[in-house]
Design a protein that fits this description.
Layout (H helix, E strand, L loop, with lengths): L16 E4 H7 L3 E5 L9 H14 L4 E5 L3 H13 L3 E4 L6 H9 L3 E4 L2 E7 L9 E5 L12 H11 L5 E4 L5 H7 L1 H10 L5 E5 L4 H12 L7 E6 L4 H8 L23 H8 L2 E6 L1 H15 L5 H11 L2 H7 L10 E5 L7 H11 L3
Parallel strand pairs: 2-12, 3-4, 3-8, 4-5, 9-10, 9-12, 10-11
Antiparallel strand pairs: 1-2, 5-6, 6-7
The structure holds ligand PLV.
The site of ligand PLV has 28 residues, from α3, α8 and α12.
Length: 357
């Protein structure tokens, strides 16, 4: 891959930062929403993954492979298509057909448990983009992938091939560097630091990127409220234990928060910035998704609902009442991390399953 073919313009967009009337009323203070759900690949992931993939292309990578809960895979597939490099995305078997279709649409090879498809786009083919789809010779192989961690093992195996590069969804300095652009945009829009930044934690890539950004723009004193759902709370467990903890399983419906172990970097972040770790129930994350849809007319996935629940479930108010969150500035930023793992039907099913009113 010649360096000239590599775009130097980032793949992500500068996203809107808007004050939410509805969430501000619930929180009792101005709440600014950073709308990462409007990124081209549907989530913040394109910031770090786009940056990583561009750098790898410059270093001669010939095939990208990414294990994902969905969003990282879409960001990797999108980046690969832009770079004209083939991509293989390995996903847990629980991944929705909607996400698989999106990945196929990006021209990626998709591997799911028990099913193996090959579809690719050849940028050299006349009439590009043209999608080819056919079963792989090894389609009978059952991968048995239920959660992201197992998909990751498979991706690491594939990445041993010559010229292939594994794209971690969250655990690489280039990914954090890419995510840090979000904080630069906050500084550009707000000027003065917010009282806190609220975000969701899966493997901790967003957390590490936001920490990096806060340090870079001189906002080290801004606390981060790190939200997880119970059953995907590997960061909370690690903080409590003071070391990395591997959860026995991912039991939360917020599958894209489902890394059984967070990146080691997240524990260092907790020493460099003030991080308040909070865990909500799945029910709260899903209710937050519904309320956000009604309030802002945008549908996001439960992984994002976890961050929104900091407002809707009164977590911020409780942290303030407990004296754990002292807001130097009377405004907060919630990162609407987005997500492709949701449809109206899935939301209704989740509400029924979890007994949300
Ligand atoms: N999702 C990753 C990891 O999954 C993925 O493969 O898509 N919000 C959304 C919508 C996400 O998709 C993710 C990560 C997060 C938050 C958490 O980001 P992280 O992993 O950087 O903490 C297993």
């Amino acid at each position: 891959m010649e360096a000239e073919r590599v775009r130097v313009e980032p793949f992500h967009r500068v996203t809107p930062l808007l004050e939410s009337w509805a969430l501000s009323r619930v929180a009792g203070m101005p709440v600014f929403l950073k709308y990462e759900n409007v990124q081209p690949a549907g989530s913040f992931k394109i910031r770090g993954i786009g940056h990583f993939c561009q750098q790898m292309a410059m270093r001669g990578c010939r095939h990208l492979v990414c294990s994902s809960g969905g969003n990282a895979g879409i960001a990797a597939a999108y980046s690969a298509r832009k770079l004209g490099i083939p991509a293989t995305i390995v996903l847990p078997e629980t991944t929705s057909t909607q996400v698989v279709r999106r990945l196929e649409g990006e021209g990626a090879e998709v591997q799911l448990t028990g099913k193996l498809w090959l579809s690719w786009i050849s940028p050299c083919t006349p009439g590009w983009p043209r999608t080819h789809r056919e079963p792989l010779a090894s389609a009978s192989r059952v991968l048995g992938v239920k959660v992201w961690d197992e998909a990751n093992t498979r991706a690491q195996e594939l990445a041993r091939r010559d010229g292939w590069v594994n794209v971690s969804p969250f655990d690489h300095p280039l990914i954090w560097e890419g995510h840090a652009s979000l904080v630069r945009e906050l500084k550009e829009s707000l000027g003065t630091p917010p009282g806190a930044v609220v975000l969701s934690v899966g493997g901790g890539g967003l957390l590490a990127g936001v920490t990096e950004g806060l340090l870079e723009v001189g906002w080290r004193h801004v606390p981060i409220v790190a939200m997880e759902t119970r059953g995907a709370h590997s960061f909370n467990a690690a903080l409590q234990a003071g070391r990395l903890v591997t959860l026995p399983d991912i039991t939360s419906v917020a599958r894209s928060l489902g890394a059984k172990t967070v990146a080691a970097r997240t524990l260092e972040c907790a020493k460099e910035c003030e991080i308040l770790s909070e865990v909500v129930e799945d029910r709260e994350a899903v209710s937050a998704v519904q309320r956000f849809l009604d309030d802002e007319r945008m549908l996001v996935e439960p992984a994002c609902g976890a961050a929104l629940a900091a407002v809707y479930s009164g977590i911020l108010g409780r942290l303030q009442a407990e004296g754990r969150l002292r807001l130097a500035q009377a405004s907060i930023v919630v990162i609407v991390c987005g997500g492709n793992n949701i449809s109206n039907q899935q939301l209704q099913e989740l509400k029924t399953q979890l007994g949300c009113s």
